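We modelled the chain as a single entity of 277 amino acids. Its sequence is:
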Amino acid sequence: MKVGLALGGGGARGLAHIGVLRALEERGVEPVAVAGCSMGGIIGAFVANGVASEQIRTAFADLQAFSIFDWSGKGGLIGGKGIEKQIERFLPRRFEELKLPFRTVAVDIQAGRPYVFFEGEIAPALRATSAIPGMFTPVEHDGRILVDGGLLNNVPIGEVRSMTTRPILAVDVTVPADRELLLDDDRSFLEKLKAPFQPGQRPLLVEMLMKAYEIPTAILNDVRTAALRPELLVKPRLHRDHKMEEFGRMDEAIEAGYRRTLEALDAYEADAQRPER
């Protein structure tokens, strides 16, 4: 079976995409077009370049968090040049060099509308699609100021539909709107600065910023997914408190994506074999 692949954003939760890909490889399901947002955009670019799931897992397992952070730029707590450097290690320079049609989405923060990358340089596009507002520095591109596409289109199903008539397999790893906030934080200001993005160590300010981003993203994503109705929808059973920065839970995320994809494929195949009434 051949499918169009729509991979959603969710930070470290998006490592579940690797398990999804492993399941597709085992079942002989072949992506023919890919669109992704944020982490889904980054992993989607690997897929579009013909990289197997195990190679993607190895690339992320070897990645050191500090190597993607820098303090350059403005408009965010973290710059993005480190992300571009890592991307350039594993992917070609331009969209036109990829093996499959690929798109990734960002948001034009000035115009308040989506922006779709489908040509030109890959690294700035992937930095833009994953630039969470307030956290990562926005990307200046073609006269626009671009941030994370998850604000408006976290699982870009419509973009895949524009590239192929094959069934769409969409993977949704969005942080749920009802994730519980950690309001108690007795650490000193200096202690909070030491490790603001370590699991369980977010300062309340960061928690509030992330929660304010997560709620509208989750609600709008549910509305869009219901309207666009992908043929296969995979929602890995990740814990609701599995945060975007918890890359140490890679194996857990991969297993969740793998198991849920097998279940979704089984259900799709069973439905296809059911006689029409």
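As a brief sanity check on the tokenised model: Strands lie at 2-7, 30-36, 76-78, 102-108, 113-117, 134-136, 139-141, 144-148, 168-171, 232-234. The first strand starts at residue 2 and ends at 7.
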